[in-house]
User: Fold this.
Amino acid sequence: MDVMGDMANLFGTGRFAQPSGQEEAADEAQEAADEAAAEVRLRLAVDTGDVEAMSVLGAMLLRRGDFDGAESHLRAATAAGDRAAANNLGVLLHQRGYAEEAAGWWRIAAVAGSAAAAHALGRHFRERGDEPAAEYWLCQSAEQGHVLGAYALADLLEHRGDDTGSERWMRAAAERGHREAAYRLARTLDRRAGQERGGDDRTAALAADAAEQWYRQAAARGHRRAALQLGTILEKRGELKEAGRWYLTSAKDGEARAACALGFLLRDAGDTESAAVWWLRAAQDGDGNAANALGALHAERGETQTAERWYRAAMDAGDDNGAYNLGLLCADQGRTTQAEQWYRRAAYAGHREASNALAILLLRAGDETGAEPWFSKAAEAGSVDAAFNLGILHAGRSDERAALRWYERAAAAGHTEAALQVGMARLRDGDEREAERFLRCAAGGGSAEAAYRLATVLDARRPPTPAHELGEPAHEKSECEEWYERAASQRHRRAQVRVGMLAAARGDVVEAARWYREAAEAGSRNGAFNLGLLLAREGSEPEAVVWWRRAADAGHGRAALRLALVCARRGELAEGQRWADLAVSLGPSEVGERAARLRDALRQELSA
Assistant:
């Protein structure tokens, strides 16, 4: 049940009476009248010498800002031994700028047992750099259950590096309702959970759960950064609806990062217009990420000038992505010089993808010397693409060892094409086991070439196909066939031909023809040749000739020989001789020998 919706319905039906402006004004007037009456009663009590009345009246006037009126009553109550008055007198003097005199009265009140005065005295000593005295008085305050004293003591101990003591008092303050303490305790537990991950997973999970609970408590008390953190946790966990509610709560309280996060959540849900509203709000509050998001939104719509304005706003907010995105925008428009300038600006600020983009731009312009340092800078900063590009750069120089080193680095970070290159290098070195490992990674990442090469490795070690007891061949699909098919489904032409051959071996002519045709239409001469063979066996020689012509024109010697034989059989001797000549020139050797004999026979026939 959506509580917010229910509340809206109840308000709409009038079942919840909403105070009018007149009622609120009447309540305020009544409160003012009650306070005036209380003040009259207190003054009458003061005239009779009531010390407690002096203290309460002095506190009332102090809250109102009437320092002159408050001071006389507070001094009188303090002289009569009222510790609350002594504390409030210290507050008054502190606000007037008499810090040392204020501390003197706070000390009197603290010694008399005032936890609030002990807290104020501790804060006074900390401001003056006397941490031992500050710790003593804050400890006195905290141990009496004063929530502000506990929080201030925790903050002091954290500053001194006493994590155990800090956490103890931060927890004490949080348990008594201090929202900032709850938030900071959650942050401490969150960091601990991060440190424990990869080690003691149970401890990490317990710390993460505890952190979430404290974030919840702080957020429920109106802490906007806690609401943002809670939204982030829930979003990572996939609980998007609740995450959105906390982002909304935080954003309405003025947290720009929450407004930005809410925008991304809405965009992912398909509500781009609402996302833009929150991004605008966040960007106007100085959030560079939101400004970049607005820029990207307008760039997608083709509104390049507006996009550029928001990217510049992101830059002004200190977000280096703004300069990088400006570079991308200029590059898309063909403004290469401006793109280079923006990439350089972001790259000099340490933006790794900008460094990689700058290097690519320089490489395309023929400046390999200028490109390499930027590739290296991006790769060292963790750019996987830059590491792969360095591999390509060194491979182009025939520096295979350096190329392999960068390919391995990129492959270790999950780069599919880099894993393929490492796998192929391992195959060349004869290390089939390592080659298989890298090819599996690349194939699993979606590389059709890797899937094909992995299939060939597995195919080479596949045992002969077993037969059933009745002598019929078994047709269970092997792993290598599955990889061939995966590559074929990704339009890998050699894989398509191989899948067609496997289907033909099983007697599945229709399936074989389908794969041969796909490969042939994509430009595979082997696919065209094999399709021709299949059609010829099925009695469709005229269509077979069409595909053999395509294969021969693409340089397939066997296809040319087949055409020569067809022409010879048809009596088209000159045409047959022409195809035989082509087969001789294309090879391979055994084809060339047969074609030469046929050519000579045709030549003799023509000269007879």
